[in-house]
Each structure stands twice: as structure tokens, then as C-alpha cells.
Amino acid sequence: MWIVRRALSRPYTFVVMAVLIAILGGTAIVTMPVDIFPYIDIPIVSVLWSYNGLAPEEMEKRVVTGFERSLTSNVSDIEHIESQTLNGLSVVKIFFQPSVNINAAIAQVTAISQTVLRQMPPGITPPLIINYNASTVPILQLALSSPTMSEQELSDVAMNYLRSQVATVPGAAVPWPFGGKTPQVMIDINPALLQSKGLAPQDVVNAVTLQNLILPAGTSKIGPFEYNVDMNGSPQTIEELNDLPVKAVNGTTIYLRDVGSVRNGFAPQTNIVRQDGRRGILVTVYKAGNASTIDIVAGVRKLLPVLKAALPPGLRIEPLSDQSVFVRAAINGVIREAIIAACLTGIMILVFLGSWRSTLIIAISIPLAILVSVICLSALGETMNLMTLGGLALA
């Protein structure tokens, strides 16, 4: 009863406290991230090793086994390790103890991954290290299509322009797009011509590797000016690659054009995206960390008109699978039910007690109590989601 006596003796103090709670609660509601589920911190790090063409057995023996042995010796707080090996690809999942500092764990995994590269098969690329998060889910998909642009051009726009621009939205993560053809210079070797010259495919690989170099040679100062010097070790056009000498046989120089041809092609396509029967590109936007789904989608949609203005007129960018619609509907549904419950509570008090004063007190105290809870949730770094709102509505 002491708080009631204190409120009666100092009414203005409690009025000021109520106004302060209303201001801080409103600020917390506006600034808190909004999502479907709360942020779930699962200490899992995935390491992706890739080596095109290497059999699963070789990937397991020459890549995964040595890497796992190094992890257990140099990375602390490991709970267990799982791995899956495919043709040319290995995924190693490292499960850590719940109390681990995930940033320090990622740093240790990154350091040991760079160290073991010396022990891996020559030519393997550094691994891709990903921090797994249960809340990192696709929230928006962008479909690219054009009746006039080829798949290579669409892929180039999605990879080099759209991804880099959308990634500037706070909280958005944009992986590689689906579909399209990745531009790549291709050398088509004629086996019959190669055999007739007494050459092997490795001779062509060595010739291109040794003669297609970008080597800075420094500068040359002539008079008052200083010029950059190029070694001229790399062809300026794709057609010039045909003039690279492969080997000299019996005093005759064999060029690349004598055993094959070079063209501006694309890498082998592994997935296809169709939109309205026409091939296109699918760009997926993920939510990274505890950012607000609604804010990310709103930021991407606000950016789309600016991006379209700089793209060819025939290119269409259509948003698909907008998860913010579901998030907003779910949040509004919970808020509506909470308001109905508060109104029913006030009506019950008015009907059974017949006191407008008691009803007014309840109508003020319930929102203030909810605002205090919202302030505490915001201070603890929680998000506005179905679970927190459901708990508040139930209370």
C-alpha cells in the first residue's frame, strides 16, 4: 500500500513519471526492430571449401580431414563438428558451446583456414566462412527479366550493379543470384587438331597462363613527366588470345588458333530461372542479424526506382515473396487483439463496479504497464515480434 500512499501524497510526480513512460515507450516502439520471431543466437559457423572437379572422396581425404584436425587443435569451445562432401564442394559445420564469443570463434576459424591452405591441393580457393543465424531468412526476392537482353547481360547487371546497390540497405544481405549465365572467356580446343600437332591440353593451359599476365613494371621519368610502364603481357581483346604461341614444333610455331578458338562465352549453367516463360534472374534479399524486416523491405523498395532509372528501358525488376506483408499483418493482428482485450477489461470493470473513475484508472494503467515492458525489452536489445507482443497481450 506504500506506493498508493506515495501516489496520493505526490500526484504531480507520478503524472510526470506517466508522461515520461509514454514518451520513452513511444520512442522504443518506433525504434525497435520488427520481425516475426525473436533473434536466436545459435553459435554455428559454416566453412565452405570448393575445388571444381575434385571427387567427393578426394575432397574428404585431402581437404576436410586435415581441416577438421586443425580445428580441434587450434579453435576453442567446439561442441562438435559436422561435414558434408559433394563433388567439388565440402561444407563443414562447427557447433560451439552456448557460452562462446562467436566473433572470437569466427576469427579463430578464419585464421586456421588461411593457415591450412598450404596443406591443401594446389589451386584451391580460400573458403567461404558463414555465421549461421536462424533469423537470417529470405525476406524479399527480385525477379529480373527483359525481352531484349541476353542471359549474360542480365547476369552482369544482377552481379555487378544490383547486388552492390541493394547491399547498401542497412541489414540487407544479398548472395549470388539464381539463373543467368556468368560471362567467361572460353577456349574451345579441337582434340583432332591438338593430336595432329602432338600437343596435350595442358600445353594450351600453360601457354595461356604464362602469356596472359598483368605485371606492373613501375614508372619511367622522361623530362618533367613520369609515365606508367606496361609490360604488354596481357591481350587487350579476346580475339588477340588466338595469336598466342602454344609451342614450337620442328621450327614451326603453333598458335592457339591452330588447335582451337577463343570466344566470349559463359560458364556452365547450373540453374535456370523462368519468369512468364522467359529466362531471367532471381535476386534474393536476406535479413542479416536482428535488423527489422519491415525497414529492410521498405529500404529496398525505396531504392528500386533509383536503380531502374539507371538500367536499360527494357529491363523489368519485379519484387516477389515480400515477407514484410506477412510480418505487418501478424503484428497488426496481435496489436488488435491486445486493444480488444484492454477494452473488454475496462467494460467489465464498468459493468460490475459501476465506477467511471475505476474504469479510467484501468484504461490508463494498462497502456502504461505495456509501455514499461516495451522500454525494458528495448533496453535488453529484443525485437518487436509475435512472441513479445503475444506475451504483452496475454498479460
Helices and strands, with pairings:
Elements lengths: L1 H8 L1 H21 L12 E7 L5 H19 L3 E9 L2 E8 L5 H14 L12 E5 L5 E8 L5 H16 L5 E2 L4 E2 L3 E7 L1 H6 L4 H11 L4 E7 L2 E6 L14 E5 L2 E4 H4 E7 L6 E3 L2 E10 L5 H17 L6 E5 L2 H31 L2 H24 L6 H9 L1
Antiparallel strand pairs: 1-3, 1-4, 2-3, 5-15, 5-16, 6-15, 7-15, 8-13, 9-10, 11-12, 14-15
Tell me briefly what this model is.
The protein is an alpha+beta fold and 395 residues long. Helix content is 46%, strand content 24%. Helix 2 (11-31) crosses helix 11, helix 3 (56-74) crosses helix 4 and helix 10 (323-353) runs parallel beside helix 12.
What is the number of helices?
Answer: 12
Compute the gyration radius: what is it?
31 Å
Sheet having the most strands? 6 strands, antiparallel
Tell me how many strands there are.
16
What structural class do the secondary elements suggest? alpha+beta
Spans of at least 5 consecutive residues whose pLDDT stays below 50 are: none
Order of helices and strands: HHEHEEHEEHEEEHHEEEEHEEEHEHHH
Kindly estimate the percentage of residues that lie in beta strands according to DSSP.
15-25%
Question: Which of globular, elongated, flat, extended, rod-shaped describes the shape?
Answer: elongated
Average pLDDT score: 84
